[in-house]
Every structure is written in C-alpha cells, then in structure tokens.
UniProtKB/TrEMBL annotation:
Pfam families registered for this protein in UniProt: Sulfotransfer_3 (PF13469)
Keywords assigned by UniProt, alphabetized: Transferase
InterPro entries: P-loop_NTPase (IPR027417)
UniProt superkingdom: Bacteria
Lineage, top ranks: Bacteria, Pseudomonadati, Pseudomonadota, Gammaproteobacteria, Lysobacterales
GO MF, any single term: transferase activity
Protein name as catalogued: Sulfotransferase
C-alpha cells in the first residue's frame, strides 16, 4: 500500500505537538514535532529556479518528482507507518504545491488566541530566565514589549505563522484545509480527534487522553527553551492568569479571525 502523507501546520504554541503525540498512539501513524522538510522543500524549490544557470534543463515534471522525492527519501524504510504527518509552519504557504504533489493529502492548521500564544512564549522565557532562547536569537536583553513585538512582526515566529494561516484560509485550496482550535483540543479532545479522523478519511481509533507521551528534551535544551515541546501526560484545560501586561494582551485579543463566520467565505472547516 502506498504511504499517505498529511501535514500539520498553523500557529506556534497552539497544540501541534500535542496533536502529533495523540496521533502517534495509532500504530498506523507517524507524527512528530516540526521537522526539517519544510526548510529543505523551500531550499530545493529555490535551487531549481531560474537562479540556477542549468534550470533550462529542468522541467516542471522533474521539479515535482524531485520535491516529492524529499518526502519519500526522508521517510525511508525506518518509518513503517502507513500514514505520515509532517509538521511545519511553512506548509500553510505551500497549499497548492502539496495539492499537486499529494492530491489526497490534508493540512491541519492548529490555531489559538494570539494573546495566549504570546503569553505562552513569555511564560517560557521567564521560566528559563538563565537560558536565552533561540526564539530571540539567544539575545538576553529586551522587555516583554520588545519580545511581543518581535514575535508578532511579519518575520517573527508568531507573525509569520499567522500570515501563513491567513494565506491558506483565504486561498484557493481550502478543500484540503482544516483549522483545529487549541481550545477544542484541550477541552474536548474526543470531539477534536473525531473531526481529524473524519477530515483525513481514516477509520476511528480509540486514543488514551490520560496517557499522552512525547519528549523532545534534547532539542528544547539546545534551543535554550526547556519545555518548549513538553506535553503533559493528561489532557486538561488549565486556567491561569496571563503574565502579559494588560495592554500587550489586549493588542492581540481580536485577532482570532477564524471565530467569525462572516470572515470565512470559503467555508473552511473550523473545529
């Protein structure tokens, strides 16, 4: 049976690692944290462009085969899963490419109130106060205001991903796109996963939401951000007070465009 590929994308700190940890309980599936294929895809796409003096010898069909080959090569025989979910925030900017390469593939974009994403990053920074984070290029200076600004700008970790989700949401390939809210995944994981399985067309699987397992401690430590990909064993909503100043929190509180049906002209599925 030919291996099937799906993609996890969306906003950071919005449940993509948690979703991958849940999916990985299914022995037919492989899913993990963000990996190198998104960057490799963009690099190869650029190297096959007109900036390569030999690009006159490369056809679009060859480009497609080479790009598709990245996935077949990376997920080699050591991965025995029938269904692979690759995670990268860049996939929301590659909806048409993915549709051409993998016509049956689906993209699940994880989303969350932006204020709480900024809050989550700031909480990590304060928790690891003696370890400057790769999120801010290991720079130890700045304030909560400059950090929020850096995250939210177009090249920032949050701003780039947010714009990528909007590009996919308002693009022409939305039939293969679903937005999964962090709030739904944590408060009603059974409903969230039922929607995921329905969306990707796979038979239902009974997941254990009280026994989730995922570890990326070595990666997180190297990034200067221990806990970046920590997934708690039991899924539950944990209420707390934001660590952000009120004006910073309010700046982003109306950015959840996916909650307004009038802003969803293509009827993208939002769970």
């Amino acid at each position: 049976m030919e291996r099937r590929f799906h993609f996890i994308s969306g906003l950071p700190r919005s449940g993509s690692t948690l979703l991958s940890a849940i999916l990985s309980q299914n022995p037919r599936f492989h899913a993990g944290m963000s990996g190198p294929l998104g960057g490799a895809f963009n690099t190869l796409l650029g190297d096959l462009s007109g900036r390569n003096e030999y690009s006159v010898f490369i056809t679009d069909e060859q480009r497609k085969r080479m790009l598709k080959g990245l996935f077949d090569t990376y997920y080699g025989p050591e991965y025995d899963a029938q269904v692979v979910f690759d995670t990268n925030r860049a996939w929301c900017t590659r909806m048409h490419h993915l549709k051409e390469l993998f016509p049956q593939s689906k993209v699940i974009a994880c989303v969350r109130h932006v204020s709480w994403i900024i809050d989550s990053v700031e909480q990590l920074v304060r928790k690891n106060t003696f370890q400057p984070s790769s999120i801010f290029n290991y720079q130890p200076g700045g304030t909560v205001y400059s950090r929020a600004e850096g995250l939210a700008n177009g090249d920032g970790m949050v701003g780039y991903a947010y714009n990528a989700v909007k590009e996919a949401f308002y693009g022409h390939d939305t039939a293969n796109l679903m937005l999964l809210r962090y709030e739904t995944l944590t408060s009603d994981p059974a409903r969230a996963m039922a929607a995921v399985y329905d969306f990707i067309g796979e038979p239902a699987y009974t997941h254990d939401f009280d026994n989730i397992s995922y570890h990326a401690d070595e990666f997180d430590l190297r990034a200067g951000t221990p806990g970046l990909h920590t997934v708690r064993k039991k899924i539950a909503v944990r209420e707390r007070t934001s660590v952000l100043p009120p004006d910073v929190f309010r700046r982003f509180e109306n950015d959840a465009f996916w909650l307004d049906p009038t802003l969803n002209p293509r009827q993208v599925r939002v769970v």
